[in-house]
Structure formats: structure tokens, C-alpha cells
Protein: Branched-chain-amino-acid aminotransferase
Organism: Serendipita vermifera MAFF 305830
Amino acid sequence: MSNGIPKQPMPLADLDASKLEIHLAATLKDLPEPSSLLFGETKTDHMLVVEHEPLAGWGKPQIVPYKPLELDPASHCLHYSSNLFEGMKAYLCPDGVPLLFRPDMNATRMTLSAERLALPPFNPDALMALIKALVSVEKRWIPQLPGYSLYIRPCLIGTRPAMGVVPSNHATLFIIVSPTGPFFKHDGAGVKPVSLYASFDHVRSWPGGTGAFKLGGNYAPTFMPAYRAAQEGYQQILWLLEDVDPKETDAIEANGAVDVEKKSSEMRITEAGQMNFFAVIVREDGDLDLVTPPLDGTVLPGVTRDSCLELARFHNLPTDDPLYTCLPGIPATRKVYPCERNITIEELARLHDKGRVLEIFGAGTAAVICPIGRVGYRHKDILFPEYPGGYGPLSKALVETLEGIFVGKVKSTWSVRCE
Ligand SMILES: *Cc1c(COP(=O)(O)O)cnc(C)c1O
């Protein structure tokens, strides 16, 4: 500029749900038979797409007929894995309104994943409004049957159409949805506990890594170990990480001698497959510790994880507290202590030998709670207690309460209606 003052760049447009345009499909698909649904296979009529351009910022969000994306072959996401996603579900309320469960947690988590990959930022409330709009449009896809829901998959990908190894200032945010049945068939046979292979040679996450973010890049390297575990007869992997006490290593390094023998050789549990890990440990006095690894950067901050911890907290509150929800089947006199602490596979095995492990399970949106029956650990199997119906006493109480909240049968401030 002539006065020598550099021109202020225009502020980039934030994601704005009020700019949403809806272009409905001319013909709608036939709805599939609910019993034939396989997770993530069914495509609905519409999707939501919004693009971010480097100079303009976020454009107009659009709900359009479901179709393939068009990507330049040089797109950043195809080369450098600038891909992230979320997973959540909408259930139908008895009055026919779709209900979301704590969608603010997913929206915020997605902004953190975007920040971690240096993808364009966006306002989480706008994302939530767009999710609600798409769910409202696709509401007819939610089967009116117990346990059925609409799985919602918001994604953000870097679309900078060049191969330079720099952050992607072009991006596409899209949301697709897919009707889905209960993870465990409600056929009266109950839930079958899964088997896990404790992995010593492959790690999912590590200190300073990206395990706490929902990135596509965290998933790709897990398929080969999972495939090998399946060949050995295990359904998923129990992810471990060497449990080195940082104080201990500091002291060793300060002495100038790295004595490997002195480092702890125990392996701490991080996650169970793509779920957060929980162990229910019985205290001497019969109260329960609900143990799950802390959010130290190696664990995904799951919405289901947080909700299980909160429900345990609520169980212990005095009855006149407005947040009070007693866990069904667990007497109010039996306290349930939420414990975010590290637990090693060796400690779990020792507690199991003493008969103090009531149950272990995974928690996540897809299965809600998945009991774990068997863990393959150093060439032998640890067999955890089995219960009629599959769930142990605490996980049964948690799953019942959560499923009640999902469909609006249990009133909760966590429920958000899509109207
Ligand atoms: C998504 C996910 C979970 C579960 O998170 P929810 O918000 O409860 O669905 C747990 N672990 C990993 C690795 C995940 O990607």
C-alpha cells in the first residue's frame, strides 16, 4: 500500500450454521430391512459438506444428495494423513424426536483434533448445529426399534491440492450418517464377552504422540496387529505401553548409567481395541473401584469413558442431590469410586489371582460397553469372571443407565434434542 502500512488481511469466515443451504434429493432411497443392517455399510440420502478456502475461510455449509467427494490426486489428506473424525449416535425419543448424547463433547474433541493436525479451526457450536440439521433431515432412517440408532460420522480432511510438506490451509468438513443396529444382537442370547490379545510388540500410542486425538492416522497402523491377533483367535488388541516411571529414568540418566534392569518392566494398559479400558476392583470392605487409565495423552478422551466415571460419581452422591442417579442393582450403600489411575497388565493379573477383579470391559460409542472375557498375555490366557447375560454387575448398571438416557427414558442434561 502507498502509505507503507501493510494491508490487514481480511478475517477468515468462521463456520456458520446460519448459512446452511439444503438441497434435497429428488428421489429418496428405499429403507433397508433393519435386521439386515451392518455397521457403517448403509448410505442415507444426504450428506453435509462445507469447504474451507485459505483466503475466504469457511464457505456455505450444504446438505446435498449423498455422493462421492471429488479430490485432486495431490490432496494433502491422501499423502500426509491430514484426516480426523468423530463418532456419535442419534437415538429416537418415544415422541419421535432424534436425541443426541453429549454432542458438545464430540464437537469440542473434533476442534482439538483439527488443531493437532494444523487444519483450519472452527466453532464447535456451529458444528453441533450442522449435525442436528443433518440428523433432522435423515430422521426417517432411524429404525423405530430398541437399540437402533443413526451413527453420525463427522470428518475433516486436508485438501490442499499440492504436494508441499506444509500444513493444509484448504479443508473439507463433511458429515455422513448411517443407520445401525445394536452392537450386540438383542436375541435373548445375551452379550458375548470379547477376547483380547495383549500386545507387547506393537503400541497404539506413546507419550507426546497423538493417541488422545481421533485421527485416521492412529487407526491405519492397528489393522496389521489386529489381523495377526485374529489369526491367533483374539477379537481385538489390548494396547500396552512400557510403564517407565519418569522420576526413575531421570534419576538413572542423572547417574549417567542407563541400567535397563532398573526400569520397571511392567506394561501399563492404555486401551482395549478402539475402546477405553475399565477394570472393576473390589476393595477390602466390598466397595468398588472403577479403574480406567488417566488422560495423559496416550488415551482417547472417550465420551462413554467420561460418562461411566460421572455415573459412578453420581451413585455416591446424597439422595437429595439433583444429579443423583443410583446405579440400578448396586445398593446405595455400596460405594463406587471412579479411579483414573494407571494399571499394568501385571497388576491386573495379580488382582485377578486374588479374586479381586469383578469384571473388565471396554467403553465406546459403537458398543457402549463391551465385556472382556479373556486376555491372552505372554502365551497364556487370563479368564475373567463370566456372568449370565454377559455384563458384570457394574457394567450392567452402567449400560442400562446409559441406554435409558440415550432414548430419553432416563431424563438427563446430557440429552440434546434435534428439532
Ligand atoms: C472413539 C474412540 C474411543 C471411544 O470414544 P467415545 O467418545 O466413547 O466413542 C476410545 N478409544 C479410541 C481409540 C477411539 O478412537
